[in-house]
Write a structure and sequence with these properties.
Elements lengths: L1 H17 L5 H26 L1 H5 L1 H35 L1
Length: 92
């Protein structure tokens, strides 16, 4: 866990130092997209190679769908609530 935090802090520091470089945002966006795609491939390999996950994919899939729908719905409710609070403060 400490390694993850240190890498995050390293990245944040580099971002602060390099944020005024021209084209940096575009380069970082492309790199991020490539890394996320690579992580998805590795995750797919990991899931496909695990026989226990593959045997229980039907029930796990339904649970995952329920959790995803709940998370998205909850996020929408919170954003709507916070947007309403922000609009009232701006109007006051």
């Amino acid at each position: 866990m400490l390694t993850i935090i240190l890498f995050f802090l390293l990245g944040a520091g580099l971002g602060i130092l390099l944020r005024k470089q021209e084209g940096m945002a575009i380069w970082v966006e492309k790199l991020t997209q490539a890394v996320v795609c690579a992580l998805m491939v590795v995750l797919g390999i990991s899931v496909g190679a695990n026989p226990q996950v593959m045997q229980n994919l039907g029930s796990l899939g339904l649970q995952a769908l329920a959790l995803t729908v709940g998370a998205v719905a909850g996020s929408i409710v919170v954003v709507k609530a916070l947007s309403g609070i922000r609009k009232r403060k701006a109007a006051a």
